[in-house]
Amino acid sequence: MHESWFDRRLKEFSRKSRAKKFELLDSLFQARPENRVLDVGASGEVFLRYALEDVYPHPERIVAGGYFLNEVRSARKYYPRCHFAVFDGCSLPFPDKSFDLVFSNAVIEHIVGAGRQEQFAREIMRVGKSWFVTTPNYWFPFESHYHLPFIQFLPAGLQRPYNRALGTHIPKGRLEPLALVSARELQRLFPTSRIYKVRVTFWPETLVACSIHPEQH
Predict the structure, then answer these.
(1) How many angstroms separate the CA atoms of 117 and 127, rounded?
(2) Measuring CA to CA, which residue among 103, 117, 89 is closest to residue 209?
(3) Domain boundaries, the chain
(4) DSSP state of 1
(5) Cα–chain-centroid distance for residue 10?
(6) Could you tell me the pTM of the whole model?
(7) How far is the CA of 152 from the CAs of 31, 80, 201, in angstroms?
């Protein structure tokens, strides 16, 4: 199938954005062979060939997984040096502070329902000594899931016809369950973190909540 100019530009933008996030992580977290890392939201389908598992220097120390069995299975196929598990990010099956780093890329905005994002954040902070959590910026005008400008600012009743009329990425007329957050909201969810704003274009597209344990500096 022929890939359009627009799709190529989006892939290029996505790769640059991920590269900036990984560069930031590398500058903040000094990875060591003994460190245990948890990747919450790993997938062999969504981020294939440019995920944490591709760039982290000690992949055999990563435990990666998520809620959907098919995505965990596909990730296991592509990243055989890592360890994998199926789990709910809002109820992680690991002891307190059992990981030196918890990494989660573009997952928290998919956690919908009253109190669910708070629960997700608490679990990450509970099991991790350090954490690095990324999410699209609510205030960036181009919404990265729908590939449409300003759709996140519209009421749900208008998002559906807008997507039906102009959408190309998510099937027309469908609403993706999303709970995008701003920098202020991300700070509220991770109160002991520093919030970083990652920019490829004119405005920060990505937010990162990060807290690094002193021994990792």
Answers:
(1) 16
(2) 103
(3) 5-138+180-212, 141-175
(4) -
(5) 17
(6) 0.94
(7) 36, 37, 19
Q: Which CATH architecture group holds 5-138+180-212?
A: 3-Layer(aba) Sandwich (3.40)
Determine the length of the chain.
Answer: 217
Q: Look at residues 136, 108, 110, 186 and name the one whose alpha carbon lies nearest to residue 17.
A: 136
Separation between Cα atoms, residue 100 and residue 199, nearest integer Å: 27
User: In 3-state terms, what secondary structure has residue 72?
Assistant: helix
Write out the H or E segment, with its range, that includes residue 26: helix 5-28
The tens-digit pLDDT sequence of the chain (217 residues) is 566 777 788 888 888 999 999 999 999 999 999 999 999 998 877 766 789 999 999 999 999 999 988 989 999 999 999 999 999 999 999 999 999 999 999 999 999 999 999 999 999 999 999 999 999 999 999 999 998 999 999 998 899 999 989 887 777 667 888 999 999 999 999 999 999 999 999 999 999 999 999 989 7
For residue 56, what are its two tokens?
């982290």
Contact 17, 42 (CB under 8 A): no
